[in-house]
Every structure is written in C-alpha cells, then in structure tokens.
Specification:
Layout: E1 20-21, E2 33-34, H1 37-50, H2 76-93, E3 97-107, E4 112-121, E5 127-135
Antiparallel strand pairs: 1-2, 3-4, 4-5
C-alpha cells in the first residue's frame, strides 16, 4: 500500500515564528508577518512580477519589468510576450513552482494588464492562485 507523504519545510514546523512580510504594506503597523513558507513564496512571486529590471542593486536581472509595458501599445502580442516572460522568470527564480494555468490579458483602452495564474509548489504539493492587476 502506497502512502502519499507530503514534504514540509522545517520553517513551517514552528507556526509562531515569522518568516517574512506580506504585500502590500498596508497594515497599521506597516508590516504584516507571514508564518508559512507557502504564503511567503506567494509574496515573493508577486514581488518578482512587480519589480522592474535593474531595480535590485546586486541582482539587476531580477524582476519582470511589467510597469514599463504600460507605456507601450498593448495588444495580443504584448500579452503573449508577458506570458513568456512570466513562465521563464518563474522557472529561473522559483524552480520549485510549477505553473498549472497562466492567463495574461487586460484592457488596452484603460491601459490595464492582468496576470492570473495557478501553481503547485513542487516539493509540498500545495496549490495557490495569484491575480495581479497593473494599470497606468
């Protein structure tokens, strides 16, 4: 008889110890503490998508640079390019994340880009969804 054993990160074994901070910084105390690695991974992915290239000093290639796209002509080709960038960026910087569904769309008239994707964390099997709206 086979058992499905779920891997857990060592940091998740002590639920009272904070691992990182949540986004956005809108808590009255500015930072909201995150207590699980899965939740922190979600915020790290959001941070990656919203970070522009050359914004991180010691890692200038980190980030998707999606805000710069808002000032270009937005069309279907733009959405395809962003989808390709998201896939390759997640693959490079978050190798434990497996994207199961990715949709990039938006409204060119309102200068809106929307990224929606679902993913599985490879080592634990946990699933989550992310929806990011970027508008000018």
């Amino acid at each position: 008889m086979a058992y499905n054993i779920r891997n857990r990160n060592v940091l998740d074994l002590k639920p009272s110890i904070g691992i990182g901070v949540a986004l956005p910084f809108d808590n009255p105390a500015v930072f909201e503490t995150v207590y699980t690695t899965a939740e922190q991974l979600k915020y790290n992915i959001i941070n990656f998508i919203l970070t522009d290239k050359r914004e991180r000093i010691f890692n200038p290639q980190f980030g998707l640079g999606i805000r710069g796209r808002l000032f270009e002509q937005i069309n279907i080709d733009t959405f395809d390019e962003i989808e390709s960038q998201v896939r390759s960026g997640i693959e490079n910087y978050f190798p434990s994340v497996i994207i199961t569904d990715l949709t990039v769309g938006g409204d060119p008239d309102k200068n809106l880009i929307q990224i929606r994707f679902s993913y599985i964390i490879g080592n634990s099997g946990e699933t989550d969804n992310i929806i990011i709206d970027v508008n000018g």
